[in-house]
Every structure is written in C-alpha cells, then in structure tokens.
Amino acid sequence: MTNQHDALLDLYRQMVLIRRFEEAAAKAYSQGKIGGFLHLYIGQEASAVGALSTLTRDDYVVGTYRDHGLALARGMSARSCMAEIYGKVTGCSQGLGGSMHFFDAERRMMGGYGIVGGHVPLAAGCAFAAKYRGSGEVALCFLGEGAVSIGDFHEAMSLAALWKLPLVTIVENNEYSMGTPLSRTMSVADSSTKALAYNMARDRFEAKDVLVVRERIGAAVERARRESLPTLIEVQTYRYRGHSMSDPGKYRTADEVEARKKDDCIANAERSLRALGAGDDVFARVDQEIEAAVDDAVRFADESAEPGEELIEAYTYA
Ligand SMILES: Cc1ncc(C[n+]2csc(CCOP(=O)(O)OP(=O)(O)O)c2C)c(N)n1
Questions:
Q1: Nearest protein CA to atom 7 of ligand 1, as residue
Q2: Which of 6, 17, 63, 238 is the residue whose CA sits 20 to 30 A from 44?
C-alpha cells in the first residue's frame, strides 16, 4: 500500500473512532448514566481530524463545549474521555469538567469551554506565549459560527493581527447556532470575511474531504509557524445530531439532514480509500478495532469511581 493510502487510513480510523465514541456516549446519556450537557460532533469529524493532523506535539488546541472530536484527534484516550463525560475521577479532568471541559496539558489540549466566544482570547494568549518564548509553536482555536458575533472573538482577532500571533482560528460553520440559522445572526454568509477588518489572511472551504481539510489548514499552520502570522478560516460543515442531547431539532427538516448525510466525510474517505486499493477486510478490521476500543472505554467509565468529596472540595471551594 502507498503512503497516501496509509495516511488516509489513519485519518479515517480517527474519524470512525470519534463517531462510534459519540454514538456510545449518546446511548449512555439516554440510559441516564451521564448528567449535564452532551454536545455531539457527529458529521463534523473531518474538521478536527484533518486540522489536528497538521500539528506537532507542542502546538496548542483550544475549543468549545463540542470538544470530544478535538480531544480524540489530539490523541487523548477514549477511556479518559468517556470517563470524563460520565463525571468519573478517571476522566481527563478528574470528572470535574464533564463533556464540555476536556483538558490534557501534556498534549496541550487546553479545553473545552462553555462560554461562546470566551475561549478565543485564551487561544490568542497561547499563541502570544509561544511567540514570546520564540518556541515556534502554533495555537489552533475552534469555534462555531455563532461565536463570530461575540465581542471576545473580535478582541482576539484584533490583537492576533496587530501582534502577528501564530494563531489559526477555525470557525466551524455547521449552519446553526443552537436552533438559529446563520442568516439570522450575521449580515454576511462567509464568516472568514471578518478577517478583512484586521488585515489577516483568510480561507474558506467545505470539510467533506479530510485530506482537503489537512492541506488547507496545513497551509495556515505553516504560515503561523514560519512567518508568525494568524489566519481566520471558515470550515463549512454540518452536524447531524441536535445542538445538544436535549434538542428536538424543530428548526430543520429530516429531509435536510438526510440530504447532508449523502456527503458524509467518513463515507467519502472510505470511497477514496477503496479507490486507492483498500478492500472490505481493511474496513472490517477498523470497525472491529474501534468497536473494541469504544466498548472498553464504556466499561472503564462504568466501573470507575466518582470524584470523592475531598477532590470536589479542593477544586470547588477556596
Ligand atoms: C456567551 C454565551 N451566550 C450564550 C450561550 C448559550 N449557547 C451555548 S451554545 C450556543 C450556540 C453556539 O453556536 P455556534 O457558535 O454556532 O457553535 P455550535 O454549537 O454550532 O458548534 C449558545 C447560544 C453561551 N454558552 N455563552
């Protein structure tokens, strides 16, 4: 098999892991094993997987509450992620963060934030730190298109451009901000045009093909690393599930969702892999391997303990 085949297979495997992991999380949620919020990334996998495949170990990743895909693509274990969603002490944030607050300092996965747009200045701060140290690291920040109208976003873009920070800001435009379509929150359809106000490089493309995502984000990451310049990118994507588990989805039709599933990033990657020579055996092996990993993560989360009073007190009370 070629290098191209092997590279795509790796990305495919990561996307399948994210999808199966979240399907299992949704099931556990409906069984009452998970409390609080659960925002699924299903449909958007190519965005995180393609983007994070361009990073080195030391680069920073900052995201929203829709963070499971980022965490898994960053190499965090399915066990630590599932346990976190369950609120168990073995989770990546010791069960104190839950689904919206995944952290892994070692992998520079800096969260996991619930305040829409509030995390963008934090990502700019990571990029500032990297530039200040001259360490060559890049910060990748993910947000939804709903966050583009938030003041924090503009403050961060303004300083990132002024100070030439190595920041790549990725707006995942999944067309809806909860139940509100983009046309009701912004006067322009293309959020990357906001970069014009800051004299910042920009890009915009669809996340149907994980290799396209990798190439286009890769160019921005290189610009950040080599020239210390920021880029604003709109990735056009679509979430198949509700905003969160409690969303009845009345703002769009089932036909719309079904039509969008026809251009699924995982199915597209499978087609490309078959064209490169992958046969049924390859996909059966991936399915088996991912099923085992997800089953193991669920078992681990089920069997793990909740954080004790001591831990809760240490982090909750001053
Ligand atoms: C400052 C702030 N306002 C409102 C909310 C409630 N809220 C949570 S998610 C969300 C929608 C955000 O949509 P978008 O940025 O497009 O991201 P997506 O959920 O589509 O990934 C809103 C309004 C919040 N968490 N923070």
A1: 116
A2: 6
| pLDDT, tens digit, 9 for 90 and up, residues 71-122 | 999 999 999 999 999 999 999 999 999 999 999 999 999 999 999 999 999 9
Among candidate residues 44, 56, 49, 41, the one with its CA nearest the CA of residue 11: 49
Between CA 163 and CA 137 the distance in angstroms is: 15
- The domain defined by 3-303 folds into Rossmann fold (3.40.50)
Is the distance from CB of 10 to CB of 34 less than 8 angstroms? Answer: no
Ligand 1: residue of 39, 101, 175, 178 to mutate (most ligand atoms within 8 A of CB) is 178
Contact call for residues 301 and 99 (beta carbons, < 8 A): no
Q: What is this structure's pTM?
A: 0.97
User: Who lines ligand 1 at CB under 6 A?
Assistant: 66, 114-116, 144-147, 174, 176-178, 243
